[in-house]
Amino acid sequence: MPPTPRRVARRARGQDRDAARLAGWLGLGMAPVALVVALWFAGTMLDRSAAAPEEIAPPPAPTAFVRESGAPAAVAAPDSQPVAPLVPPAADRTWWETAFANQLAWFTTARAPTNERSVARAAPEKAPTRVPAAAATPVAPLDLTAAINAALAARNVAAPRVSPTAVAPPTGARSSAAALVPPSGDTIQTSRRVHPTETPTADLVVPSRSQAAIVAASARPVHSAPRNGQNKWGIGIYRDAMFQLSIVERSKPGVILLMDPSYEFARAVRQTAPSAFIIGRTYLREDRQPLDRPAERGTALADQIALTAVPLRGVVDAWMSYNEVLGSRPSTDYIAYGQLQVAFARRLQGTYGISAVAGNNGSGAIQPHDYPLYLGVAIRESDYLGIHAYSPPATRDMRHEADWNTLRYRKIQQALENAGIRGTKMVITESGLGDGFGPVRVTDEEMAEQFAWFTRELQRDPYMIGHAAFGLFNLTGDWAGFELTGTKIPDLVRSLLGPP
After folding, report:
1. Residue at 68 is within a domain
2. Mean pLDDT score of the chain, rounded to an integer?
3. Residue 349: helix, strand or coil by DSSP?
4. What CA–CA distance (Å, rounded) separates 273 from 13?
5. Which of 246, 253, 371, 422 has the maximum number of C-beta atoms within 10 A of its C-beta?
6. For residue 93, pLDDT beyond 70
7. What's the Cα-to-Cα distance from 408 to each of 125, 139, 383, rounded to whole Å?
8. According to the model, what pLDDT value does residue 47 have?
9. Sign of the C-alpha dihedral, residues 419, 420, 421, 425?
């Protein structure tokens, strides 16, 4: 029998009653679950707020070392004040602000990026908001003399192999550095390749007793002054290839960076460019630049580099340690890197007579006023300060916002002068466009003109030695967007600048 309208309506009302009954049972069943979840979340928040959060405090002013007398001398704080913190002081916080402060402190200290090639690059910044500065807490001088003396005495016995056990940061470092904020809320940091990871731990490669003894016995402390004069155009060579000597001969660079050079190739480069300032670099993977136990790491790295650097003394003028290791906001890594570079410079220069190049951080990765604050002692101890100078990513011109990018070194130099760190010799160990000239389709002529402009700017600053353009890779495919091999750029730069 076909359904009548009355039967259809009755059936629909029955289905509605069944659906409502089912929804009611489901609601009654889910209510306890929702209550349990709500109670668990509230308990978690109360547990986090129960612990007293670490106080936000400005980092302490560093203590500088005077190499000539060895007596420590206080360095004035840089001409900058900390901005207002992200969360209010502990006494004025609500429970959720306290929980946020704890999470901020954990995230800032627990994650430490280690970048090999590119790190955060800062866009032009407005003047930071000023707040009254808190009283600076004096910090004791970095006592690395005992570590260095112990390493020297260890040459008479079998060299120890350092275990990969992590070492806790210095007392008080977490509370002073964990909650630091960038100097300007308008700072925008971008990057071509940033991989924030936990700071890795790796075994040190310590030279054997016989190797260290031979190298140290042949060392004589000789710190040669740069002899390139106003010839501040330069180039970085990252793969040995004898045919690249013709590029050096034609372009006549005043600054050259050599990565992992062979003895024969380095001497051939020196013969081709007798007046160039040559920097040496040992390649270390991102996960082979750890910052735990910084004094031991710096000393051992200097011993390792000395095996190559001492036989090349007079050929290579100075050597770097790590490259682009800092790429985040201030954290305990800043403190550790400063300590590592102090130990590296004292060992390399004091024991082996080889000049050290401090810094070498990514372009725009560190605010200018943070250089004297965190790396001031290392800069004083080292003969030279290395800077990277690139335009912002995805730009076609090195002159783009140059004051805060390619010419940022001037702000760094001014911050050092304001802090009482004077007479610092700087060298640009990498320079170019943020993403290279290949991806943005810049012609050889345009790129050469930009390098020539940058070189002329460096010639205006007597404290600047010059720059090494990134770079010659021998057409291996590494960093193809920056590859200068096979281009007319080096020759065109020399033509634009004229004879050295």
Report:
1. no
2. 73
3. helix
4. 96
5. 253
6. no
7. 12, 29, 20
8. 53
9. positive
Contact of 449 with 215, CB cutoff 8 Å: no
Q: Cα–Cα distance between 407 and 390 in angstroms, integer?
A: 9
| Cis status of the peptide bond prior to 14, with omega within 30 of 0 | no
Look-up: residue for tokens 């036989």? 311
In this predicted structure, the answer to whether residue 486 has a pLDDT above a threshold of 70 is yes
Tokens found for residue 248: 């050096």
**3 state SS of 253:** coil
CATH number reported for the structural domain that contains residue 415 in this entry: 3.20.20.80
Per-position b or e across 181-200, b if 16+ CB within 10 A of its CB = bbbbeebebebbebeeeebb
The answer as to whether 466 is a domain residue is: yes
Note the pTM of the prediction, 2 decimals: 0.61
pLDDT at 331: 86
Nearest to 420 by CA among 384, 388, 373, 463: 373
For 380-433, what is each residue's pLDDT tens digit?
999 999 999 999 999 999 999 999 999 999 999 999 999 999 999 999 999 999
**Letter for the amino acid at 215?**
V
User: Which residue is listed with tokens 């306890």?
Assistant: 32
113-117, 216-220, 299-303, 310-314: least confident range: 113-117
Residue among 267, 265, 261, 248 at smallest CA distance from 315: 267
The H or E element that residue 446 is part of is helix 444-458
* Type of residue numbered 392: P
End-to-end CA distance of the chain: 108
- The number of domains in the chain is 1
Relative to beta strand 318-320, strand 355-361 is parallel
416 near 372, Cβ under 8 Å?
Answer: yes
In this structure, is residue 421 part of a structural domain? yes
Specify if 426 maps to a domain.
yes
**Better-predicted residue by pLDDT, 106 or 358:** 358
Look up the domain containing 276 and give its range. Answer: 176-497
